[in-house]
User: What shape does this take?
Amino acid sequence: LLYTIKFEIVGIMSWSDLALSFTRKISCPINKSMFLPFMVDGIQCGMILKDNIRHFKEEIDKFEVGENVVQFKESIVTFEDRTFAINEFFLKLRDKKFFDHTLKGWRNENYTVFNGCFNSNKLFDIERA
Assistant: This one.
């Protein structure tokens, strides 16, 4: 498989902006109609496969599922609350063996999700597995 990359000079870009632009150009396209964005504070943190939305709908104390978006409940606003909610949610799925066909191990290691570039505001921690 060969990817053709076209660089456009549109002005001076920082190294991180250039790297992000390059990454977006070489990434495989996905069918976005199969996903809903997961938003936190107006920032898209991920994409949720529509087939898995039912699991988020079951957690009405943690998530709001709209027609075009999934997000934390309005009452879940702090880093600590978000971290607790998302990890409790994924632990329930793990205990139901939801991940058995995709994950071979649970690391018990957190990954921090930021609201942009590294060292910006932390949104929540999530299991790295």
